[in-house]
Amino acid sequence: MNRLLAKLLNKRPKYIYQDFFNTREEAVSHSRNSQDYGSKAYDSRALKKLKLDERYTQGRNMIAPLALSILNKSQCTILDIGGGVNAVFSHLSQMQKQQHQCFVVERTEVIKHLNNKVPVKHQQHLRYIDSVAELQTADIAYFGSSIQYIENPEVLLNQISSLSPELIIFAESIFTNDSEDYFVLQVNMFPDIFPNRFVSEDKLMNLMSGLNYHCTYNRAVAGDFSHASIKRDTYDCKTLVFKRARKER
C-alpha cells in the first residue's frame, strides 16, 4: 500500500498546467476524466463538503460580498457561475444572506443534489440552476475562477449582459498576452486531467466593451500558476472587475 502511494505521489506533476492546444476539442481529446471538470468521484467527495455559513473568508471570496455592500441596494441578485459547494453565498455576511438572492449556475448532474442539501433557512435566498435563461435580471455576475472551464464564454457573456448586471467579476483566472484564447491541461487534481482555457485579455476587453462594460479593476493574484513549458511572463492569474457603462441620453 505504501509503495503504491509513493508511486502515485511520484507521478504527480510539479506544475499546475501542461501542454498547449489551439482548440478546446484538442485539449478534450488529451484529457483524462469523464466530464468537463473533475470526475464523478470528485463530485461525490465535494457534495459532502457543502458549507453555507463560512466563519472566515479571504481572497476571491471577499470580492462579491464587498461589491454587494458598495451597490448598497436593499435587495440584490447575484449570479454565481460555477460556484459549486463553495458558492459565493457561503461568504456573504449573515445580513446579506437574509436580504439578497444568489443563483448558482452549475452542471446538470449536481444541481438536484446541491439543492437538496440547502438548509430550509437558506432556501429562499440560494438556488442552484443549470442555465442563465432561468433569470430575468441580475445585479452582480460573478465568475469565481470559473471562466476558464466554460465551453462558449462569448455566448454566455452575451446572455449575462442581457440581464444588465451592474458588475461582472472575473476572479482568479489565467489571462494571457496573446490575441486569442488557447487551451492547456490542468493537472493539479491528479489523476483527473482536464482542459483549462487561458483567456486572451485583449479579446475579453474588446468583448466586454462591445457589451457596454468597462474594466474598473485589473490586478494580478499571487500564487503558483506554473506551466510545464509556457513562459510565465506571457500570462498571469488576475482578477478583473467590469462595470456597466451608463448610456448617454
Summarize the structure.
The chain has 249 residues and is an alpha/beta fold. It has a single domain, classed as Vaccinia Virus protein VP39 (Rossmann fold). The chain contains eight helices and ten strands.
Total helical segments: 8
Mean pLDDT across all amino acids: 89
Number of strands: 10
Q: If you compute it from the alpha carbons, what radius of gyration comes out, rounded to the nearest whole angstrom?
A: 19 Å
Helix percent reads 25-40%
Shape: globular
Termini separation comes to 71 Å
Number of domains: 1
Structural class, judged by helices and strands? Answer: alpha/beta
CATH homologous superfamily descriptor: Vaccinia Virus protein VP39
- Could you give the order of the helices and strands? HEHHHEHEHEEHEEEHEE
Q: Using the coordinates shown, work out and report the CATH topology.
A: Rossmann fold
| CATH architectural name | 3-Layer(aba) Sandwich
Low-confidence stretches: none
